[in-house]
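User: Hi! I have a protein structure encoded as tokens and I'd like to know what sequence might fold into it. I'm fairly new to this, so please keep things simple.
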């Protein structure tokens, strides 16, 4: 074959789709990641009775994961930069699954609390690694889709597995949930190690790699940046940072309620049995999954139609937070079907509001994307620390979830106000040297 003929054949080669296999791996990893961190919420009604844990103490246990998860974000990123995606994700999944499995053996508050702290450390590299896989494997025009696909894993696992998990708990007890989730994660860690490769070492053909490179993928990794608290303090002098941080805290507070206290609410406040809880718990998580995809689609559509970033990025989030505040209406109805409908609307709206990360890249100062993302993610994880404790204290002090739902609704309204009043224009922050 002549050189010209060979070049023509190469140009006509159809790109493979190996990048979608990589996407399937991180979507599965995210599903298992959220299953392992939130399965405690499903086990909580039975676990607290057997281990005699009060609502206030259970709020601390729910919160403990976020303590170490937030603290380990930067060290987890450093490890990822040093040892690469394949090894980091394998070790992260392996350790988080082992700590999940060990929770089946706990005999009291001390061991449970310790394992939740270790789980937070182990899971910390997951989302930085997800972002790195998307940036490595996908051209720019496909990254929003790829990010949406793996983000849905946060909700979709509990959406479709909840009936099975509650049936397992009814048949085999709450400890069986941690055994099943832990074993599933350990199997995934092995599959990841066997299957995942970066593009140059993968089965992707030259045409697919050319497609990725042309779209901005496979770029050289930038030099690792240290988290500079002085830079963070300069960021916090700008209203845009306060706006998105308060808004993200508010949106995540609704998410944290559903990931922690929601099954206990159905069991204790609504007096549902395990199988009924499993059936009803599906609906809000399916609604949230749809909300995530709808919010991203709507925002991108408005941008393509010529709307400004102020409208396209802020409108879905503001409407989502306002609609999420309707969760308080569940306090004033008795029919459980209507209650689930209200909660499903609120969680759908929270999914719509989950666009905060798109604003980080819009407002981050040049060369400070890492610091901006670090501050933003810290605000998000503060909701995981504060909200479970606050709800536990409210329930312990009042004996019901009435004021707990009012608390979640009030936080959502504060978040909407932050985007309306505090954020201002969606534009890049300029920091004087």
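Assistant: Happy to help. Inverse folding works backwards from shape to sequence: for each of the 433 positions I chose a residue that suits the local structure. Here it is:
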């Amino acid at each position: 074959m002549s050189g010209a003929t060979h070049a023509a054949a190469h140009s006509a080669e159809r790109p493979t789709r190996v990048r979608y296999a990589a996407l399937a791996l991180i979507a599965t990893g995210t599903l298992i990641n959220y299953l392992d961190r939130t399965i405690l919420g499903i086990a909580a009604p039975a676990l607290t009775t057997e281990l005699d844990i009060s609502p206030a103490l259970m709020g601390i246990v729910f919160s403990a994961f976020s303590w170490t998860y937030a603290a380990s974000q930067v060290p987890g990123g450093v490890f990822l930069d040093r040892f690469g995606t394949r090894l980091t994700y394998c070790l992260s999944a392996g350790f988080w699954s082992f700590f999940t499995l060990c929770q089946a053996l706990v005999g009291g508050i001390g061991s449970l609390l310790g394992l939740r702290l270790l789980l937070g450390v182990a899971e910390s590299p997951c989302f930085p690694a997800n972002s790195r896989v998307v940036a490595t494997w996908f051209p720019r025009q496909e990254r929003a889709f790829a990010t949406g696909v793996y983000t849905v894993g946060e909700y979709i696992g509990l959406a479709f597995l909840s009936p099975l998990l509650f049936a397992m708990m009814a048949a085999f007890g709450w400890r069986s949930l941690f055994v099943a989730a832990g074993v599933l994660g350990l199997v995934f860690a092995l599959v990841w190690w066997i299957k995942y490769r970066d593009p140059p070492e993968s089965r992707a053909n030259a045409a697919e790699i050319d497609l990725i490179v042309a779209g901005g993928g496979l770029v050289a990794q930038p030099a690792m940046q240290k988290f500079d608290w002085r830079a963070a303090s300069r960021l916090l002098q700008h209203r845009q940072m306060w706006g998105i941080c308060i808004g993200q805290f508010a949106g995540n507070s609704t998410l944290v309620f559903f990931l922690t206290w929601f099954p206990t609410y159905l069991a204790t406040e609504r007096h549902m049995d395990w199988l009924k809880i499993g059936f009803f718990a599906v609906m809000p998580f399916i609604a949230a999954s749809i909300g995530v995809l709808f919010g991203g689609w709507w925002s991108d559509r408005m941008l393509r139609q010529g709307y400004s970033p102020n409208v396209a990025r802020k409108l879905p989030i503001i409407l989502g937070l306002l609609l999420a505040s309707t969760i308080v209406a569940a306090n004033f109805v008795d029919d459980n079907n209507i209650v689930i409908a209200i909660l499903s609307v609120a969680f759908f709206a929270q999914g719509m509001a989950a666009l905060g990360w798109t604003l980080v890249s819009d407002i981050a100062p040049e060369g400070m994307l890492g610091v901006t993302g670090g501050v933003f993610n810290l605000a998000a994880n503060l909701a995981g620390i504060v909200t479970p404790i606050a709800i536990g204290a409210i329930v312990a002090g009042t004996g019901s979830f009435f004021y707990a739902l009012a608390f979640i609704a009030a936080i959502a309204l504060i978040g909407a106000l932050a985007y309306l009043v505090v954020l201002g224009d969606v534009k890049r922050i300029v920091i004087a040297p």
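A useful reference point when you look it over: The chain has a mean pLDDT of 82. Feel free to ask if any position seems puzzling.
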